[in-house]
Amino acid sequence: MTDSIITAPVVPARGALRPLGLESVRVTGGFWGERQAVNGSATFPHILEWLEADGSFTNFDAAAAGTIVEERRGREFSDSDMYKVLEGMAWEIGRTGDAVLEQKFHELVARFARIQEPDGYISTKFGRPGQGARWSDLEWGHELYCFGHLLQAAVARVRTRPDADDGLVEIARRVADLVCETFGPDGIDSICGHAEIELGLVEFGRAIGEPRYVEQAQLFVKRHGHKSLADIEFGRAYFQDDMPLIDAPALRGHAVRANYLAASAVDVSVDLDDAPMLDSLEKQWDRTIARRTYLTGGQGSHHQDEAFGVDWELPPDRAYAETCAGIGSIMFSWRLLLETGDVKYADVIERTFFNVVATSPSRAGTAFFYSNPLQMREAGTAGDELSLSASSTTREPWFEVSCCPGNVARTLSSLDALVATADDDGVQVHQYMPSEIRTTLADGRVVAIDVETDYPVSGHIVVRVRDAAEFTLGLRVPAWATGATVRVVGADGSVESDEGIAPGIHSLRRSFAAGDTVELDVPIEARFTAADPRIDAVRGTVAIERGPEVLALESIDLGADVSSVVIDASVAPTERDGRVYVSLRPRDEDDAEWPYGPLEAESLGSTREVPLIPYHDWAERGPSTMRVWIPTAPTTN
User: Which of 376, 365, 294, 344 is nearest to 625 (CA)?
Assistant: First the structure.
């Protein structure tokens, strides 16, 4: 038999790989363990405090008191911020058993349960005298979007605390029933302007065994592209309502909406055997990653509509790369990994985790980036109040639209469920961090392994077998890692080595003894990275990566603005004292009356070595200018 309850955000009906949830995987330290600890101790209290202050919580109190029309604060989707933090709290409680969070969880559920109407409807924005009617603004109202996040919170709760008595699951069931009745085959023939209800319905249906919810999710997915929403200045592609999803060549429109819709489409297509849709989604993922994704894994190059641009439109200084879009990309990639078993999806997940998810929150866990540009031209001023701009130059404690902090919190609290998977013959480790993995395969074999590593400080990963068993151990060799080696050290002292392991999944099938270790070494040294020449905005530049981390040049280390130098790419990056150094030359900064002229050699100063930082650490030392793509020194006239 397999594990009876998979405590994970995504549990498909079938697939090449089975997710291993919080009951099977526990992160025990390292880069991500530290961030999980901060997330639990600092980020959740910070979010709860700000949601109280900005009205997201007190709106529910005003609705219960009958004063909501006069007192409501915040945007139309602010209800979702409560549901997102509830979901994150549920995963965190499941991961740690935090009693303080458990008590707070009960208090919050009781707070919004008071305003659920007899038919299941629940909203602080619509449906009362003096407010807009239900479903009167499907383009922008976000009613169904908010419901989707409520359902995802219920999924987290039923999978981590199935016997909880807070009532959330019943509240969610009534919401889902209302949605099916209102928007079913004989109901309103439309969609929500922001995909999310689809994700909530399908996973809640899986969690409580109600196929009707999965079918309703599929109905919403297939309604996209039939122009049921009004046209807007950004075009219907913003809502993914310009063409049927199955016909789309790539993700387009609002990057968060697009990723959420694609992820839910994978869900319903897997459970309801829609092979043509799955084939289309895989092709859309391929083109989106190849042509519409930043080096960091960030997505979305338009500020005005938070949207994807056309192919190759990836300007570093104008990158929007919203944190929520990165999380949505991980959600889409993870589902395709489970369905296909192809580790290219795990490679993108790793890239996005290290360079988007890890970048947004400060090390202290109490300030955030909303957007994640790859170049900052002006050093901003650090703030301690609510920011009205998502395009801030420093991490901010809160935003007028604060979707990202809650999204980061729920992602980090459920991270354990994205580390490894299983199939009928073994376990695959996709993300490297200190962790304990325990699971039972379909035929009853028990797999118990520990992962020990300081990755990404080094590329040395040790997998220690705790209990004797015959199984296949799969280890992901990242796409950037050439020349990886594997060594199996037996408990009896025997040693077997395999060198030159190619990127991909490296499988070892054997009868493991308790105490056997498998050592994977991947080359982690710094390297230059060039962009496809069709990306106009970064032609003539290079970036530097080290393992899974993108590096950045920051003015604090340069002692000048980062636009004042070029890089000598003939000199390889060097490492010492835990930092990566590159050779830079100052460029001629003489001002001219006209910034254009004949092609001629640029006047450059002497070379000096300057350290870089991981991109996820930029702006931690204060306001600065920064860039990932550095112009190369000219070599000819």
Answer: 376
CA-wise closest residue to 84 among 395, 398, 368, 403: 403
Residue with the two structure tokens 């289309």: 280
Asked if 370 contacts 380 with a C-beta cutoff of 8 angstroms, the reply is no
pLDDT digits (tens, 9 = 90+) for 177-210: 999 999 999 999 999 999 999 999 999 999 999 9
Query: Under DSSP, is residue 280 helix (H, G, I), strand (E, B) or coil?
Result: helix
Q: Residue 83 contacts by C-beta under 8 Å, 6 or more apart in sequence?
A: 146, 149, 150, 152, 153
pLDDT confidence of residue 635: 60
How far is the C-alpha of 242 from the C-alpha of 237, rounded, in Å? 5
The DSSP symbol for 171 reads H
Helix then strand count (H, E) for the chain reads 16, 24
Contact 84, 64 (CB under 8 A): no
Render 104-138 in DSSP notation, one character per residue: HHHHHHHHHHTT--TTS---SSBSSTTSBPTTS-T
- Note the pLDDT tens digit of each residue in 294-312: 999 999 999 999 999 999 9
Among the listed residues 416, 420, 516, the one whose alpha carbon sits nearest the alpha carbon of residue 464: 516
- Amino acid in the structure at residue 114: R
Q: Which tokens in the block code for residue 317?
A: 């200084």
Give the 3-state secondary structure percentages of the chain, helix then strand then coil, rounded to 5. Answer: 35, 20, 45
- How far is Cα 400 from Cα 54, in angstroms, rounded to an integer? 9
Q: Report strand pairing: 375-376 vs 626-627.
A: antiparallel
Residue 587: DSSP 8-state? B
Please give the span between the terminal C-alpha atoms of the chain, in angstroms, as a whole number.
70
CB 355 within 8 A of CB 615: yes
Asked if residues 528 and 544 have their Cβ atoms less than 8 Å apart, the reply is: yes
From the number of C-beta atoms within 10 Å of its C-beta (0-12, 13-18, 19+), residue 636 rates as: exposed
Compute, in degrees rounded to 10, the torsion defined by CA atoms 476, 477, 478, 484: 160
Residue written as token pair 């993870």: 334
Q: What is the pLDDT of residue 393?
A: 82
The structure's pTM equals 0.97
Give pLDDT, residue 599.
Answer: 79
Burial class (CB in 10 A: 0-12, 13-18, 19+), 418: buried
Q: CB–CB of 55/75 below 8 Å? A: no
Residues of the chain falling short of pLDDT 50: 1-3, 636-637
Contact 308, 255 (CB under 8 A): yes
Q: Tell me the sheet residues that pair with 452.
A: 462
CB atoms near residue 587 (< 10 Å): 17
Angle subtended at Cα 389 by Cα 385 and Cα 390, rounded to the nearest 5 degrees: 105
- The set of residues, in sequence order, having a beta carbon less than 8 Å from that of 4 and lying 6+ positions away, is none
